[in-house]
Amino acid sequence: MITMSPASSNINSTDLDYYCTETPTVAIIWCVLGVLCACVGIPASVWLLWVLVQRQRSGTSNDIYVVNLTVMDLFYNVGTAPSMINYIAFRNHAFVLLDEILYSFSAIGRPLFMTCMCMDCFMAVVYPITYMKMKRYRYRLLSCAAVWGITPCIGTINAFIWYSPIPGALYWLLVPTIAICDLAILYTLRKPDPSGRSDVHPQKQRALQTITNSFVMTLVCYLPLMAMGPFLRLMPASDQVKFCVISLLVYIAPLLGGIIMPLLQLHSLGRLRGLLYCTRDSGSSEQPDQQL
After folding, report:
1. Residue-level pLDDT at 257
2. pLDDT for 147
3. Residue 149's pLDDT band (cuts 50, 70, 90)
4. Could you report the per-residue pLDDT of 112-134, keeping only the tens digit for each?
5. What is the model's pTM?
6. Distance between CA 50 and CA 27 in Å, rounded?
7. Is residue 105 in some structural domain?
8. Is there a domain that residue 11 lies in?
9. What is the model's pLDDT at position 112?
10. Total domain count for the chain?
């Protein structure tokens, strides 16, 4: 996915080689990683979406935020490979503008949905009585509709307005909110049970896994972006180096987010565990044949 179009960069774009023809090494690595992430992220997102839909039909889950986040990750992963091919081979500027909007699904939509998930868990864990009185389904639908409306709008702004401060401002607002919220939930869930029981309730264990996944995603994918914003201008390097080396290295993190989140969710649902067992069983069954 084209993550650093001239419209979204934080550096001076005058006479800037956007396609990094003079320093192509990092750009090529970035494109190869993008294609590999898409190859893993698409089947992982489809698998996770199928599992979530099955759970919703059976009534065992009603996590609308995770479903919407998975759909958004799927759109992002589907657009990654064509975007990288266009960046390397065709270099169509119109596709780059469209790609900037698609990239907002990862850069803007994902942290917005993660914030919604975090706040929902925060209310359920820290203020359970107030949470039970709320019309949860209605405000969840409204929150999802708002995220789907805001995300492409910000992507469009980034595609046409130079030096847009909106993404950086959102990171500085959303990332600390997610981190503080996750830590508050973890602290509450880790408190000893008043009855003295030492075992962890399965529902509480699932909440712990969800919050841990959210915290890992925040640190891996968005902390580098948040840190790059204020320091990129201060770095003693040319604009071309900032654009084609430093920025592209930092923007590898959102690429990884397209596979980290679905894989973490599949692991928390116990699906990867079964896949590993099948792999081990097939490997052990092949050993006697090899010895013969």
Report:
1. 84
2. 95
3. very high
4. 998 998 888 888 888 888 888 87
5. 0.81
6. 34
7. yes
8. no
9. 92
10. 1
Residue 6 counted as domain residue: no
Name which residue leads in pLDDT, 97 or 283: 97
Residue bearing tokens 């500085």: 172
Query: 178: which 2 tokens?
Result: 């997610």
- Other C-beta atoms within 10 Å of 226: how many? 18
Give the residue with greater pLDDT, 248 vs 6: 248
CATH assignment at residue 259: 1.20.1070.10
Residue 68 lies in a domain: yes
